[in-house]
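Quiz preparation item.
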């Protein structure tokens, strides 16, 4: 299968996740192209069988570059198998309100872009304290405190479950056959 993996990232975790997915698909024998959303101007989707788009939630929305790309590519994406990876910190927890917020974010993304992926998965991201400026550092420390997370404000803290992501890639490539 020929895959395109398109991602948008603000602090780097979604790039790491997109790279991991691309590597797993390649390990499984697929062809994979990995592209930042900002570099998709001359992308010809007819070269691919499947597409994964990945972006991260920042203040209840995805990167605008990902929204623009999903909107522009929506007609081409509709002809492929598609998976949307929504990366967030809410996905690391089990707060029903947070999960409702995530579902609302994805619904708003679909509404804005007109792209309706075949499958959406929520992936836990990371605190990237080593990348934040002072203001965002404070904001994220406050969020961590609200969630009762013990963090070191001078170190990154990753919640991404890489084993689960590897299983997802396996399942995405070879979905279990339905037994009727
Ligand atoms: C300024 C800021 C706002 C964020 N807002 C949200 C949010 O509204 N909901 C959420 O679940 N996570 C939120 N996050 C967490 C990010 O989604 C998480 O850190 C993710 O790993 C970022 O991915 P990236 O490194 O690819 O940008 C926020 C992070 C930052 C820095």
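Solution:
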């Amino acid at each position: 299968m020929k895959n395109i993996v398109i991602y948008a990232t603000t602090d780097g975790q979604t790039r790491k996740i997109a790279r991991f997915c691309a590597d797993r698909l390649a390990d499984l024998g697929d062809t994979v192209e990995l592209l930042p959303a900002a570099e998709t101007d001359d992308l010809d989707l007819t070269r691919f069988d499947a597409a994964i788009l990945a972006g991260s939630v920042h203040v209840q929305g995805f990167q605008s570059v990902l929204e623009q790309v999903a909107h522009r590519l929506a007609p081409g994406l509709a002809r492929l198998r598609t998976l949307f990876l929504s990366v967030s910190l809410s996905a690391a927890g089990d707060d029903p309100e947070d999960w409702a917020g995530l579902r609302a974010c994805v619904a708003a993304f679909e509404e804005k872009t007109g792209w309706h992926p075949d499958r959406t998965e929520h992936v836990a991201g990371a605190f990237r304290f080593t990348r934040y400026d002072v203001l965002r550092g404070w904001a994220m420390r406050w969020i961590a405190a609200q969630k009762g997370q013990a963090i070191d404000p001078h170190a990154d803290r990753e919640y991404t479950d890489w084993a689960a992501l590897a299983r997802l890639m396996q399942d995405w490539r070879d979905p279990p056959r339905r037994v009727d």
